[in-house]
């Protein structure tokens, strides 16, 4: 019998703005703004590539970069447009708004508008089996606070390099981490359309 989807989630808990994994490892997630590399001039492209090289050269731990693609959710934008339409007294502007709304609705019905979100996952796992040990020797186990400190050191390094490249990363908090988990395992939703009851459950989980 196939295992349920949630069995794939190896997160044991979420607190202190980190995922706590089943094996005791920690994961912090940084949201990073996207850039259009093709629109940069040659000098800026070189700077960006050099900064990325500096980031990779300075790593002594694994770093995960992933892109989450979702259908764009424009419901909020349409709501603003319709409210503006109700308030508008000028007939010409009303006509232009109506034409614009109709154009958008037709375009979205016939085209897939995607939103891409970029994340960097900064991990901390205790060393295991990579260093030669003498017979009977065991690696010392770090406390949760010590692992958290090591993770924060890594996060600061990644922050610094990204900032020097003009990329201002945003650390996901506890609620955002839970939200991200839901989004990853529910790809059929448009971004930002997490059901209200799910949001309430996520909030209860953090209380």
Produce the secondary structure layout:
Elements: E1 11-15, E2 18-21, E3 26-32, H1 42-57, E4 64-71, H2 75-87, H3 91-110, E5 114-124, H4 144-164, E6 170-171, H5 174-184, H6 196-205
Antiparallel strand pairs: 1-2, 2-3, 3-5, 3-6, 4-5
Helix amount: 40-55%
Pattern of helices and strands: EEEHEHHEHEHH
- Secondary-structure class: alpha+beta
Give the strand content. Answer: 15-25%
Give the radius of gyration: 23 Å
Largest sheet: 6 strands, antiparallel
User: Between the first and last Cα atoms, what is the distance in angstroms?
Assistant: 35 Å
Low-confidence stretches: none
Count the E strands.
Answer: 6
Based on Cα principal axes, name the global outline: globular
Number of H/I helices: 6
Rounded average pLDDT? 81
Key traits:
207 residues, alpha+beta, 6 helices
Structure described in brief:
The chain is of the alpha+beta class and 207 residues long. Helix content is 44%, strand content 18%.
How would you characterize the overall build of this protein?
This protein is of the alpha+beta class and 207 residues long. It has 6 helices and 6 strands. A hairpin with a 4-residue loop joins strand 2 and strand 3. Helix 1 (42-57) packs antiparallel against helix 4 and helix 2 packs antiparallel against helix 3. The longest helix has 21 residues, at 144-164. The mean pLDDT is 81.
């Amino acid at each position: 019998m196939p295992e349920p989807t949630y069995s794939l989630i190896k997160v044991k808990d979420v607190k202190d703005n980190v995922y706590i994994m089943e094996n005791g490892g920690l994961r912090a997630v940084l949201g990073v703004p996207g850039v259009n590399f093709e629109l940069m001039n040659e000098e800026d492209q070189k700077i960006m590539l050099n900064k990325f090289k500096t980031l990779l050269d300075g790593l002594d731990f694994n770093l995960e970069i992933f892109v989450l693609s979702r259908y764009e959710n424009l419901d909020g934008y349409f709501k603003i447009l319709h409210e503006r339409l109700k308030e508008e007294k000028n007939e010409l502007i009303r006509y232009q708004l109506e034409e614009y709304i109709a154009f958008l609705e037709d375009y979205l019905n016939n085209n897939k508008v995607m939103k891409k979100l970029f994340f960097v996952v900064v991990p901390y796992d205790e060393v295991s089996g990579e260093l030669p040990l003498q017979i009977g020797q065991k690696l010392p186990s770090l406390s949760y606070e010590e692992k958290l400190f090591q993770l924060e050191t890594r996060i600061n390094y990644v922050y610094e390099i990204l900032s020097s490249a003009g990329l201002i990363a945003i650390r996901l908090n506890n609620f955002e981490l839970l939200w991200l988990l839901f989004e990853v395992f529910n790809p059929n939703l448009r971004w930002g359309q997490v059901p209200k009851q799910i949001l309430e459950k996520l909030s209860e989980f953090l209380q």
